[in-house]
Amino acid sequence: MQQPLAYKMRPRNLDEVVGQQHLVGPGKIIRRMVEAKMLSSMILYGPPGTGKTSIASAIAGSTNYAFRMLNAATDTKKDLQVVAEEAKMSGTVILLLDEVHRLDKTKQDFLLPHLESGRIIMIGATTENPYITINPAIRSRTQIFEVKPLTEEDIQVAVKNALTDKDRGLGNYPVKLDENALLHLSRATNGDLRSSLNALELATKSTPEENGKIHLTLSIIEECLQKKALTHDKDGDAHYDVISALQKSVRGSDVNAALHYLARLIEAGDLPIICRRLMVMGYEDIGLANPQAAARTVQAVQAAEKLGLPEARIPLADAVVDLCLSPKSNSAYVAVDAALADIQAGNVGEVPDHLRDSHYKGAAALNRGIGYQYPHNFENAWVDQQYLPDKIKNAEYYQPKATGKYEQALGQQYYRIKEWKKNPEN
């Protein structure tokens, strides 16, 4: 059976893992577990092609434990029994259990005692949020780690490794990969290394050799990825230019320009980028001026993700028109950045005693919670008391804008409370 390039290039140890350095880098949690020989069962969750199987394979390679792969949806309890028997014989088996969120109760009940004994170290892989989709009995016996989409740089490193590796990769093929083709490979798959390597392999093996070289151009990579580049410019900046132009057109309320740039991103097949950017705009640029527009954008994005392209263009267009013609406010975004700037500058201070947790024995002796006034016991559910630390007790971050009815109402309440503070008797 011919194995795909992505399978053959799986890392053999943690040092070969591309990306995910927050988990496998020096001093990070998974590397610590491997180096201390204190492995425990875990769940890796994140988008497809980002390295969940690779991390499991690298852990097995770094520990010399037997490594087995099963799928919770399609493999049976009998398959689990085979792994359990092997674990009894060899001592420990690392089991990569794909689609772990599909584990039914029968298989779960069989697996639990083996996880508790440590005979089977399960590495569950899922694209779903484990805090929502995975049974608490499994969740409580595992550590949960998020696997993040790979960066362009990560994918470029992996592509170059595949092109030079003569044992597992394409090192025996005389490939010349154009720089703009490499950029497209690293960008168009939105962090999915498997897709990038699959396209690279198809391009290499389907392109005739000429003058002793297999010349992979941007158009060849576009065809093998089935995603067009935004432009054929040399440095590839148009990818970011179009995304920037979309947001600035929405911010500037130019609906026709925004639809134009949306169409360019749709034509390039950049659905994840579009969805993320629209949600950012909903909260960054429209914000409190029209919170319902942000909520509708989230609904449109969810519909687009379920529909996929080309039908996804319809809810996406609805969202772009809605955001363009909505009143705009960045007040909350500016306010939280101002608060973060204070914190990063060291302007923090102690939480006032009357606001501290008072629900434990001995709290009163430490003056915790003493003097706190419960706002609901007062007229307008408001009482004048200090909430900020002494060091920044007069800080003001939020400045209301009057560009939408909702924030106008918030602003009226904000200034009303300021007046109450000045004249608490009124």
Automatic annotation (TrEMBL):
Origin superkingdom: Bacteria
Q: Does the keyword section mention Membrane?
A: no
- Alphabetically ordered keywords of this record: ATP-binding, Nucleotide-binding
Q: Which residues form the AAA+ ATPase domain?
A: 38-150
**SMART domains (alphabetical):** AAA
Q: What family is this?
A: Belongs to the AAA ATPase family. RarA/MGS1/WRNIP1 subfamily.
Its protein name is: Replication-associated recombination protein A
Q: Which organism is it from?
A: Enterococcus alishanensis
